[in-house]
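To illustrate the input format used throughout this study, we show a single complete record. The first block contains the structure-token representation of the backbone; no residue identities are included at this stage. The design step must infer an amino acid for every position from geometry alone.
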């Protein structure tokens, strides 16, 4: 990539009256293959190059994007984005970071995060692995059908430059898989799935072992029962507990604070979890999906405690939203080629607790282990929580039988206050949490 190409665009924007501007160049190669019932169903390979141009004139902001990088088209888009910026409504909060606040991009520091896999899997290898993944699950005689399996790999290059001296240039890779199968007998049919995302292809794991584990977990769900409506303690398995952190993120998003629609809007430096709970957003972790040294606005990225010893410490924001709530920028702006900066987490996780998941199960006289969640009805204004679920019923510290068609209801305020984490934290996604015990939730059943 010739960065002079982007610098020329910035210079032309300035010449045509732009006060501030940035240019986002993105190139990505994607390959994927999916199988169903032991046969390759679809194989795709694509390469896309895009460019986005954003300009700000008198606090009026516009953005355009294209996959056509021919000179004539770029000249047309420069004129277009300038014209658009003159007629859109004023936004007093828009703007690039002050040059003194822009972190200089350090290539060595970025590369130390190990976000690029030098190994590039071939299409043939991905096809071979996806067949292995699904067939290993189908080899179990109690697996009666499959929704399929898919493995994907991407290799991307990003270059983002701004009139304020912003310059970000990085290569990243991303690999993931998903598989879903159905187990059945004369009385019931149950679905089980697994998925994982990693920077390095080989870190996805042993596909044969993964398929066999998925089939075993599907069979465990057979002959599930309904339970009577009751109040009970609930363990959210680590497979689904990260959803609670996503709920927390939504409530801690500055946009929710600006709108006044978050039950946490007045909770900075106040206790929302028990004092043993720490929840961290750390963009500087090696080999993690959301790692970075600065956000897309050039604000330096650092490890931050979202919750420290139970107390809420900050709201996720971008430059514009930070101005609106009168907070310091948190370094959580994210964007695509065609969008203005929005707010996102980096690597968000809850620190593990001291007890194993089995210890939590043994501590329960009666309760529910949730392994799958579905649907969502959450009121972020007051924290009311309701989701469909399935899992396993526990009595006297033992897993007794699978259950399904349950609704879990509670309030996130009280759920957070009573939450107890297990020690089974793993990093497989952008948001990660250990299994969590939450007391006294309402279970809607028959």
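Output of the design step:
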């Amino acid at each position: 990539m010739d960065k002079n190409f982007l610098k020329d665009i910035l210079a032309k924007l300035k010449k045509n009256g732009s006060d501030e501007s940035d240019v986002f160049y993105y190139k990505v190669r994607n390959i994927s293959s999916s199988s169903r019932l032991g046969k390759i169903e679809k194989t795709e390979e694509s390469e896309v190059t895009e460019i986005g141009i954003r300009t700000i004139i008198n606090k009026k902001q516009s953005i355009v994007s294209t996959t056509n990088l021919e000179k004539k088209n770029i000249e047309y888009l420069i004129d277009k984005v300038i014209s658009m910026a003159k007629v859109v409504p004023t936004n007093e909060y828009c703007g690039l970071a002050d040059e003194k606040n822009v972190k200089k991009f350090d290539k060595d520091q970025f590369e130390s995060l190990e976000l690029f896999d030098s190994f590039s899997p071939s299409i043939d290898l991905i096809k071979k692995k996806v067949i292995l993944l699904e067939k290993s699950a189908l080899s179990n005689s109690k697996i009666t059908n499959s929704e399929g399996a898919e493995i994907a790999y991407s290799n991307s290059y990003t270059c983002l430059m701004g009139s304020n001296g912003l310059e970000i240039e990085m290569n990243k890779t991303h690999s993931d898989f998903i598989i879903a199968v159905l187990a059945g007998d004369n009385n019931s049919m149950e679905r089980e799935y697994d998925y994982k995302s990693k920077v390095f292809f080989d870190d996805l794991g042993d596909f044969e072992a993964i398929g066999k584990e998925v089939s075993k977990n599907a069979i465990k769900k057979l002959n599930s029962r309904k339970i009577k409506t009751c109040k009970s303690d609930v363990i959210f398995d680590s497979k689904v507990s990260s959803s609670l952190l996503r709920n927390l993120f939504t409530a801690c998003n500055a946009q929710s604070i600006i709108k006044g629609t978050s039950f946490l809007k007045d909770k900075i430096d106040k206790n929302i979890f028990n004092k043993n709970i720490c929840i961290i957003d750390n963009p500087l972790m090696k080999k993690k999906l959301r790692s970075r040294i600065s956000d897309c606005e050039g604000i330096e990225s650092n490890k931050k405690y979202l919750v420290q010893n139970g107390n809420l410490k900050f709201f996720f924001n971008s430059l514009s939203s930070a101005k609106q709530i009168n907070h310091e920028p948190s370094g959580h702006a994210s964007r695509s080629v065609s969008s203005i900066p929005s707010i996102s987490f980096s690597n968000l996780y809850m620190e593990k607790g001291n007890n194993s998941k089995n210890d939590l199960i043994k501590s329960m006289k009666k309760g529910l282990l949730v392994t799958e969640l579905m649907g969502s009805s959450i009121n972020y204004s007051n924290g009311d929580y309701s989701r469909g679920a399935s899992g396993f019923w526990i009595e006297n510290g033992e897993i007794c039988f699978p259950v399904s068609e349950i609704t879990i209801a509670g309030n996130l305020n009280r759920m957070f206050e009573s939450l107890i984490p297990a020690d089974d934290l793993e990093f497989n996604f952008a948001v990660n949490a250990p299994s969590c015990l939450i007391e006294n939730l309402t279970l809607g059943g028959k």
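Structural context for interpreting the output: The first strand starts at residue 20 and ends at 36. DSSP finds ten helices and 19 strands in the chain.
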